[in-house]
Amino acid sequence: MTVRLPLFPLNSVLFPGLVLPLNVFEERYRAMMRDLLKTAEEEPRRFAVVAIRDGHEVAQSAPGMPDPTSVPERGPAAGFGPDPVKAFHGVGCVADAATIRERADGTFEVLATGTTRVRLLSVDASGPFLTAELEELPEEPGDEAGALAEGVLRAFRQYQKRLAGARERSLSTTADLPDQPSVVSYLVAAAMMLDTPTKQRLLQSPDTASRLRDELKLLRAETSIIRTLPSLPAADLTRGPTSLN
User: pLDDT (tens digit, 9 = 90+) per residue, 26-42?
Assistant: First the structure.
């Protein structure tokens, strides 16, 4: 099944079930939000998020170096090269915007939630913002997903404790964690301190069990590193950065 949606490229990976706050100030994405606001409130206001492979989340808006006379790129594909589809990773996530609030200066405050994984088939840059043809990807459980989820949760709790110790702060581990394997796999993928290519690999896993197996190896490796290097810096587990765009 394919669907055409507005496309919002980011320097990060969005997973199903995770909340995405956005500060929208570029005109191409402001146009996207104005268009989404035309959707009836009872209907989902959906757009697709893909991680950038090669390009810039925010387009250059002033003459740059080393040539101070260079003209900044304009348009929906600015910063993504002549063939935008090559600038993005091939699997992304649909986002459902629960809140789209326009500020007095015309920028937007957006709060969305990841819903469904999608494969990027094509990108259209002919309008005021990028749109994409996307194929929805089912989430198959795979073999032994339940048992793997239990192992990942145990390893994740150890990872949390080690990370809290490395930051010399307390971290509550009493909060309820999900037990549905697919939800566990996405929560852990989003919460771990990993680079974008690794997070993208987890998003693209063929099934839940494969993602959980990968996460178990990563958790054990990362916990071992933190144990060895207790001063290793890390960001908060439960909070991600708000996109500048």
Answer: 999 999 999 999 999 88
DSSP state of 178: -
**By C-alpha distance, which of 53, 114, 134 is closest to 87?**
53
Report if pTM > 0.85.
Answer: no
Cβ contacts of 94 within 8 Å, gap of 6 or more: 5, 46, 47, 48, 49, 114, 115, 116, 117, 118, 134, 136
User: How many residues are given for the chain?
Assistant: 245
Contact status, residue 209 vs residue 21, Cβ threshold 8 Å: no
At 209 the three-state DSSP class reads helix
> 190 Cβ partners below 8 Å, 6+ apart?
13, 15, 18, 199, 240
Q: Residues near 15 by Cβ (< 8 Å), separated by ≥ 6?
A: 93, 114, 186, 187, 189, 190, 199, 202, 203
- Judged on CB neighbours under 10 Å (0-12, 13-18, 19+), 143 is exposed
Token couple for 239: 């909070």
- The CA distance from 158 to 173, in Å, is 9
